[in-house]
Amino acid sequence: MAPEVNFDFQRRERIGLSEAVFCIGKTPEQIGEAIKLAQAHGVPLLLTRLAPEIFATLPPPAQASLDYDPSSRTAIVGPWRPPAGSPALAVVTAGTSDLPVAREALRTLAFYGVPAREIADVGVAGLWRILKHEEELRRYAAVIVVAGMEGALFSVVGGLVGGVVIAVPTSTGYGAARGGETALHAALASCAPGVVTVNIDNGYGAACAAIRMLGAQTRSEVSASV
Amino acid sequence: MAPEVNFDFQRRERIGLSEAVFCIGKTPEQIGEAIKLAQAHGVPLLLTRLAPEIFATLPPPAQASLDYDPSSRTAIVGPWRPPAGSPALAVVTAGTSDLPVAREALRTLAFYGVPAREIADVGVAGLWRILKHEEELRRYAAVIVVAGMEGALFSVVGGLVGGVVIAVPTSTGYGAARGGETALHAALASCAPGVVTVNIDNGYGAACAAIRMLGAQTRSEVSASV
Amino acid sequence: MAPEVNFDFQRRERIGLSEAVFCIGKTPEQIGEAIKLAQAHGVPLLLTRLAPEIFATLPPPAQASLDYDPSSRTAIVGPWRPPAGSPALAVVTAGTSDLPVAREALRTLAFYGVPAREIADVGVAGLWRILKHEEELRRYAAVIVVAGMEGALFSVVGGLVGGVVIAVPTSTGYGAARGGETALHAALASCAPGVVTVNIDNGYGAACAAIRMLGAQTRSEVSASV
Amino acid sequence: MAPEVNFDFQRRERIGLSEAVFCIGKTPEQIGEAIKLAQAHGVPLLLTRLAPEIFATLPPPAQASLDYDPSSRTAIVGPWRPPAGSPALAVVTAGTSDLPVAREALRTLAFYGVPAREIADVGVAGLWRILKHEEELRRYAAVIVVAGMEGALFSVVGGLVGGVVIAVPTSTGYGAARGGETALHAALASCAPGVVTVNIDNGYGAACAAIRMLGAQTRSEVSASV
Amino acid sequence: MAPEVNFDFQRRERIGLSEAVFCIGKTPEQIGEAIKLAQAHGVPLLLTRLAPEIFATLPPPAQASLDYDPSSRTAIVGPWRPPAGSPALAVVTAGTSDLPVAREALRTLAFYGVPAREIADVGVAGLWRILKHEEELRRYAAVIVVAGMEGALFSVVGGLVGGVVIAVPTSTGYGAARGGETALHAALASCAPGVVTVNIDNGYGAACAAIRMLGAQTRSEVSASV
Amino acid sequence: MAPEVNFDFQRRERIGLSEAVFCIGKTPEQIGEAIKLAQAHGVPLLLTRLAPEIFATLPPPAQASLDYDPSSRTAIVGPWRPPAGSPALAVVTAGTSDLPVAREALRTLAFYGVPAREIADVGVAGLWRILKHEEELRRYAAVIVVAGMEGALFSVVGGLVGGVVIAVPTSTGYGAARGGETALHAALASCAPGVVTVNIDNGYGAACAAIRMLGAQTRSEVSASV
Amino acid sequence: MAPEVNFDFQRRERIGLSEAVFCIGKTPEQIGEAIKLAQAHGVPLLLTRLAPEIFATLPPPAQASLDYDPSSRTAIVGPWRPPAGSPALAVVTAGTSDLPVAREALRTLAFYGVPAREIADVGVAGLWRILKHEEELRRYAAVIVVAGMEGALFSVVGGLVGGVVIAVPTSTGYGAARGGETALHAALASCAPGVVTVNIDNGYGAACAAIRMLGAQTRSEVSASV
Amino acid sequence: MAPEVNFDFQRRERIGLSEAVFCIGKTPEQIGEAIKLAQAHGVPLLLTRLAPEIFATLPPPAQASLDYDPSSRTAIVGPWRPPAGSPALAVVTAGTSDLPVAREALRTLAFYGVPAREIADVGVAGLWRILKHEEELRRYAAVIVVAGMEGALFSVVGGLVGGVVIAVPTSTGYGAARGGETALHAALASCAPGVVTVNIDNGYGAACAAIRMLGAQTRSEVSASV
Q1: How far is CA F116 from CA A54, A168, F12, F70, F198, in A?
Q2: Chains contacting E with at least 3 CB pairs below 8 Å?
Q3: What does residue B212 show for φ and ψ, rounded to 5 degrees?
Q4: Each residue's pLDDT tens digit in chain G (226 positions)?
Q5: Residues of H45-83 as b/e, b for ≥16 C-beta within 10 angstroms?
Q6: Which residues lie closer than 8 Å to B220 by C-beta, 6 or more apart?
Q7: Which of H14, H189, H194 sits opposite G162 (nearest CB)?
Q8: In this structure, how many other beta carbons lie within 10 angstroms of the beta carbon of residue D169?
């Protein structure tokens, strides 16, 4: 094992989630090293925040070994295949600019074999857009709500459905949006009871939280795919 | 004129709004002085943030001269009478705890002869509460929305009605509500176009903004009462 | 119905959680009104942040109608009885000073009929204390972790168990603890994947999030008591 | 309709303002998609924050279809023509650096058919500059004041005119100007009664607020152009 | 000398200003000790932030030895007499609530033998109030401007006079006034060139800065009284 | 006069300081316009924050007309010549990285005909460096102290000399230096009495403050050069 | 063992420091419980932040068992006796108001048997005060520097001595002192190399850090007393 | 000596640490000047924050004279050789992204002749990684812990070992990690007693603190190499 990387390979067995590689702040060499390590151990690996311009700097063999998705800025080192079946949860976005974060959540769910539904651009300025999906949303065990700016969508969804509502505040917006802090605080100070939140732009974390929940709920069914 | 108080008596003629006395940070003597000054000039005077415990410290003659309303923490030195007629605008609150701020707005409007409608406790956690009033709200030239915590109500109302929407963020809430800053930022970063805001807990300022707007709109009718 | 209170009685049916009364910023009259309203509708009601000194100001009939618990600063208007059975989740605290917040979570869970386990004072400065409970904690569907100061316990628990980990940052600490913001940020920036968080000192919200999750998980069994 | 964009075409009818495209954070493809969508529906569309370097990345047909104005960083997809007639309100700036924001407000007003007057570089360090326009400003139903740094102009104008005063704090300045936060706080804490504010650099929002006000004021006359 | 107090008696000779006693955070015993020490050395002593309720807790002999002024919350241990002659500078306040801070500056100036002029309640919401004094203010070598809320008065005065302008931001206001930070930032980000500032509510510091300036300017004349 | 620039040419006569051009946020065209305007009026003009890369974008005639100094990022449009004579004040820096800000102050002073002394790199980590200059510094009417990081030099100089001490906090440093805020707060909270401060990195403002002071002190002598 | 308190009795053996009781936020019952627990185990116990008014609420037997020192707000449950011998380190304060924090450090050192020297009120506004002690300070293995306001003393001491310098920022000051944050940031951004810091007002932590260092340095000698 | 650089060459003799060159914000000329100065005096010199892209801009002779290490972004001007012998302390990192900061500490230690042990990527999400090193860590006189995000590792190590624990918070992370502030606050608010901290990303400072401690501990042995 390289002295700079000390993978926690036991994590999947211990908590049901494997260690992912957050690519910002890592050198192409370190990322390549992690890929080789995963391949050597024969385990699938998820890479997040792998922007196209960083992806382009990876060594060609590393690039070739990756199932890369630029819209979510994620890559997967196989063996892996997309989940099928009816969605267990929904990922909802307030605006088009929130999509990269939502897609990070969707890819993470897919990596763990969990099918999910994407509903985009349904912010509260046109309230009919989210209300149109009310009945559908009430059927899911969880809804991941991705919103920036003032984050009003968290409370609106939290007041409509009884399942778990996981807020993902995004850095969409400017000025008083404060790089996502306003949406984050809105999630935390929500008047809807029991809304939980993760870090700004952390689609990955929201998906992991959903995995923890679903794992506990339906440990038997999911275990096959996870 | 006392050297400590230098009233801007020309303000009403100049901008249609007279100088009010913000009572926090003033001594009972200074408040009493202001009341006497208004009486000597024969002009009505509005006092704001006059908490019951401060009111109780005023000299008895000052107390007797005031039309005091503890729920809004305001007092009026006559001549004055409450407005009548159908409401020109609505004051809406997200929760019961936002009422003192809403009442400050309502009393300020009343001081200037503007009748208004109070709609309380219609926060978005139970969305049907505000939607029940949608048609009514669309008929007003302006809606003052009073909300603390995450302030989601600002955007919801801003997306439903075409009149002026004046947000009044309140200090209701704790922790990430940050003493009203989260609601304030939510108003500023709202996804609904054209929502404007005033300072935290500033019901008085919201009413003044509405007066400016109504004065400009219907200068002739209002001028009789204002 | 009083114009100042506009209860969302449909909320329980809609999302499985009923509206609770957050007592800070409300007058004794408004709290008494809410109690009467609940009694008139024959529904149980939870009151939070009801400090002993506020409880003492309530009208005697209101006091008499409440099942009051000073350690959690909560009260319940019946009909209600404590849950029995083996715990579905654990509530863990880093220190003794975090207990009031943990107890708010426990009482909220109890109000909804969910039995839970309290494990107190197991902060990471003495790591053996939490490790002693590792096996037990791994058996729960969820762990609510209540911690102030630097909030290191969130990440440690998040790395040990595969169930849902709900962080409740508390305002315990001083200076750089920043009234709970440091623990809050620690939960959000946790290196353990899938940890979710609620507002500072919000034991109530953490319990509601757990209810949402358990409701989805075991809707049939819980429905009897909830 | 593309799944990534979910236009709220009903907004204009509902609230008198149509959905605009905020171009920061959107890909050239998404912007091009929005343009096509508007053209397909035959409705005019406003694009904001379209910096020249982003404009240059748009597909040539998209570029050709736009009435682009680099000084305001806005573009309009026709059918559209500039308003004529005497100005209904004024847009005032403290300094030359505030012009791009002021121009965004002016273009938005023009998009909705509202003629407005630009008065530039009249900050309070040379007080005679704004006082020279005092009489003119008092004639408008509204004044949009655009200022960065310490934002003193908001209060000065607010104390001179009786019409609506909409502050637009800008990010002009450095250090203690804090990227526009100081001007924003100055607008909120203004000693002039009834000043309202929008987000930092949000010329678009200020114009929308003015449209709301004018729409309410003179619904009949404006409706032809709006 | 008591080990807890280590007076810098050389300071007056070294920099023209003697050490003052800031009374907040000191015990009555420590304050009494400082008074005795000054008396033993036969030097005058200035005490600041001595609120009436703290003054009342001082030992009677200490109280008797003080020339106490509650409006400025200062006390002076003799030998001392108020300055006479025409004022060398002016102390201007935006509002009545800023007076305690202005008075602290005036007392400090008086302690050092510098006569000064007080001009109160001339905030910019009624601009004529400060303009009425324009000619007078232009004659002074320095103007200390005391203002809270948005602090617009700093820039207005800075643009009118050529003498030194020392801003004293005050904690007057609420919400976005942020306890004086907004006025402080306004002074720092002022568009008027060469405005300097001191700490929030620091009337004492502003006076000391003026003493430094006047000492340098007219070292010979002032030295008699200082 | 161009509508985008509205020079306050009366400022020099009114307050002894002329309007300068802050080049950040202005287009090359606007800067060129300002230069032409000054030349047309035959008045000298100071340009600040004119980084070499911006200077290079100016039209060649504009470049040719400027006396440009890259170390201070300032330019002067003549007629102008450097001051001679013994220095009236000193400009002191804590470190080498603070030099650009110090040089901005020195050039501004030179523009107004005030000779000054530069003393660089005398931070308190090697206290002997500033103490070596103690006697010299005590002879000046004013000392401008330029320091970033923790800004300890402000208090040390303020405790050593009796002249005016003008602190210029700089953005030198990282992390807890917070872009200059720590040095700024250190100046404001200084234990040395009468230290005043200007905005972060505002060498220009510090020089203007000194001009105000010297103008008042020695109006007759300085007026020849200013 | 009470379920609310879970003492880490192994800590002393593990890291050389025993668990102390931070009394803020604990009930008198919980404090009394901790005292009994320590007595039952026959181990000495340190209580910090035990203000006189909290001490007075303890049960009389608890009070009687404590060696209470109001100036440091600490109490010790025996067996314990003050250390003798020449001091191993010094505790220095900038001002008189910093003494309670310094005394907390001194008592903690004493509890562990480490003699230390107190040097009070030697802030940099009178630089001679600290320079007078330069030679003495250079002889100690460590200097704990306690300072609020701008915290300049940290850097001055850090530049004079080669031993360990532990900064303790205090909440002394107001306004820009920001409750100790400015001094804290000053310690962190110090230009003197190798200064370390602890939390605001954390005299206890600084002493513990010194114990760690001395324990490592002279493990054998100290172990007898510790 | 160049007037822009005023090296404190006495510092090594005075406090055991020589002045280092922090390269950010300095021109290539100033860095080259510093190198020449050190060579002229025949003293070794450490340069920090010398990113590869800045290194590439140095004059070739300067480049050639440097022992440059890109992973730590440091360079050393000889005479110098790496230390040998068993490590006196350990440098531990939570993640791979923290390595550049850890390496800055290691190179600084090496510059002063102190051998140290690197243990990388042992964050608490996989607690077994740090526990595996518990026994080894307990043997060192000091442990430098380098961690970003939530900084939980500081408290965990602080609760395991009795030696000095120096926290180095890093800017690793995003959103609520707040550029290192959360890890910084976590170090300051740690529940483990006696943890000290330095500035964000300040590996250099942590090493200097360790040198101060080791110098005091084993002055005789170390002095040969230092």
Answers
A1: 51, 56, 21, 19, 19
A2: B, D, F, G
A3: -55, -45
A4: 346 888 898 999 999 999 999 999 899 999 999 999 999 999 999 999 999 999 999 999 999 999 999 999 999 998 888 999 999 999 999 999 999 999 999 999 999 999 999 999 999 999 999 999 999 999 999 999 999 999 999 999 999 999 999 999 999 999 999 999 999 999 999 999 999 999 999 999 999 999 999 985 443 333 333 3
A5: bbbbbbeeebbeebeeebeebbbbbeebbbbbbeeeeeb
A6: none
A7: H14
A8: 34
Q: What is the pLDDT of residue H223?
A: 34
Contact assignment for B5 to E121 by CB distance below 8 Å: yes
Under 8 Å between Cβ of D70 and D76: no
Q: What pLDDT was estimated at residue G3?
A: 66
CA distance E144 to E164: 8
CB contact under 8 Å between G150 and F185, yes or no, is yes
B190 chain-A contacts, CB cut-off 8 A: 125, 149-150, 152
HEC letters along chain H: CCCCCCCCCCHHHHHCCCCCEECCCCCHHHHHHHHHHHHHHCCCEEEECCCHHHHCCCCHHHHHCEEEECCCCEEEECCCCCCCCCCCEEEEECCHHHHHHHHHHHHHHHHCCCCEEEECCCCHHHCHHHHCCHHHHHCCCEEEEEECCCCHHHHHHHHHCCCEEEEEECCCCCHHHHHHHHHHHHHHCCCCCCCEECCCCCHHHHHHHHHHHHHHHCHHHHHHHC
Task: Record the pTM.
Answer: 0.95
Tell if the CB–CB gap between H97 and A25 is shorter than 8 Å: yes
C-alpha distance from A76 to closest chain H C-alpha (Å): 20
* Strand, helix or coil for residue G15: helix
Cα-atom radius of gyration of chain F, to the nearest Å?
A: 18
As a whole number of angstroms, the distance between CA A153 and CA A95 comes to 10
Which pair of structure tokens corresponds to residue H162? 């009795």
Q: Tens digits of per-residue pLDDT, B139-161?
A: 999 999 999 999 999 999 999 99
pLDDT in tens, H81-122: 899 999 999 999 999 999 999 999 999 999 999 999 999 999
- Whole-number pLDDT of residue E162: 97
H60 touches chain F (CB under 8 A): no
Quick one: tokens of F171? 């953005």
Amino acid at H206: A
Hey, what are H219's tokens? Answer: 């002055």
DSSP A221: H
Which residues make beta-bridge pairs with A165?
Answer: A143
**Contacting D residues, span 175-204, partner chain B, CB-CB under 8 Å:** 184, 188-189, 193-200, 202, 204
Q: Which chain D residue has the Cα nearest residue E124?
A: D156
> A5 pLDDT exceeds 90?
no
CA–CA dist D209, D200 (Å, integer): 14
A211 contacts C164? CB cut-off 8 A: no
Block means of pLDDT (10 residues each) for chain D, 226 residues, are 76 94 92 93 95 94 95 93 93 96 98 96 96 97 98 98 98 97 98 98 98 68 36
Q: Which residue in the block uniquely carries the two structure tokens 């968080």? A: C197
Of C160, C165, C212, the CB nearest to A162: C212
The beta strands (E) that lie in G127-203 are given as 142-147, 164-169, 196-197
Please say whether the beta carbons of B98 and B72 come within 8 A.
no
d(CA B209, CA H29): 58
Q: Which residue of G has its CA nearest to F188?
A: G176
Q: Which of D140, D191, D196 to mutate to test the interface with B (most CBs of B within 10 A)?
A: D196
How far A134 CA sits from the closest chain C CA (Å)? 11
Q: Do chains B and C touch (3 or more CB pairs under 8 A)?
A: yes
CA H4/CA A25 separation, integer angstroms: 35
